[in-house]
Amino acid sequence: MSDPGKSAVVLLSGGLDSMVCAGLAREAGFRVLALTIDYGQRHRVEIEAAKQIAGLLADRHTILPLDLRAFGGSALTDDIAVPKGGVGTDTPVTYVPARNTVFLSLALAWAEAASARDLFVGVNAVDYSGYPDCRPAFIEEFERLARLATKAGDEGATFTVHAPLLKMTKADIAREAVRLGLDAGLSHSCYDPDEGGAACGLCDACRLRAKGFEDAGLPDPTRYADA
């Protein structure tokens, strides 16, 4: 049984953002209950990255199967090419329908079962690549939903959704990884890695990650396919 008030469920994808988010939760004194969703994503190497990160930062790690390929509708879960032409301003085809809503709902369920009242998610509204479920308004509304939709909330409990990276740039996040003493090379961000897990270097996620390290003046530890 978790320690009420000190445990937090952290959504851990295996990417840099979620790694830093887990590190911040741990730094804040929380027992980290890391939740990774195996949703049939094409970049499955991130699940292996999540396992390594959880081994360093989590008190408990759950990998929950939820195959969203049954729905499709995204380049990450369907037979749709991952764009490689540069970061746009519109919602990209790598958007997975309602993904953060679904994932936070699962995190909320675990939090209520574990008597935890804190959830951490690594959404980012600055370099967010057009995803609508990475905005401050979404976080605020989900907190309100958590109070209305749970037995604990009905009994007066308040759930807090922590989004510590919300107003950070990718450069800020890269610097934060260094400050926390995290090995960013363990994380994986690419949406279309090769069979060996090397990053493509061209998808939105790769471009944003690389720019973050460059803007921070830090070496990029990513293993690229053409390296």
TL;DR?
This protein has 7 helices and 5 strands; from the N terminus they run βαβαβαβααβαα. It is of the alpha/beta class and 227 residues long.
Describe this structure in words.
It is a single chain. The chain is an alpha/beta fold. It has one domain (about 5-215): Rossmann fold (3-Layer(aba) Sandwich), CATH 3.40.50.620. The chain has 7 helices and 5 strands, in the order E-H-E-H-E-H-E-H-H-E-H-H. The protein has helices spanning about 15-25, 45-55, 100-115, 135-150, 150-155, 170-180, 205-215; strands spanning about 5-10, 30-40, 60-65, 120, 160. Helix 2 (about 45-55) links the parallel strand 2 and strand 3 (about 60-65). The chain is globular.
Keywords, separated by commas or semicolons:
227 residues; Rossmann fold; alpha/beta; 5 strands
- Secondary-structure class: alpha/beta
Give the domain tally.
1
Within the CATH hierarchy, at the fold level, what is the topology?
Answer: Rossmann fold
* Strands side by side in the biggest sheet: 3-2-1-4-5
Indicate the percent of residues in helices. Answer: 25-40%
The tally of beta strands, per DSSP, is: 5
Low-confidence stretches: 1-5
Shape: globular
| CATH homologous superfamily heading | HUPs
Named CATH architecture = 3-Layer(aba) Sandwich
Radius of gyration (Å) = 17 Å
Q: Whole-Å distance between the termini?
A: 46 Å
Give me the oligomer status.
Answer: single chain
Number of helical regions: 7
Strand content: 5-15%
The SSE string, one letter per element, is: EHEHEHEHHEHH
The description of the largest β-sheet is: 5 strands, parallel
What value does the average pLDDT take?
Answer: 92
Q: State the CATH class.
A: Alpha Beta
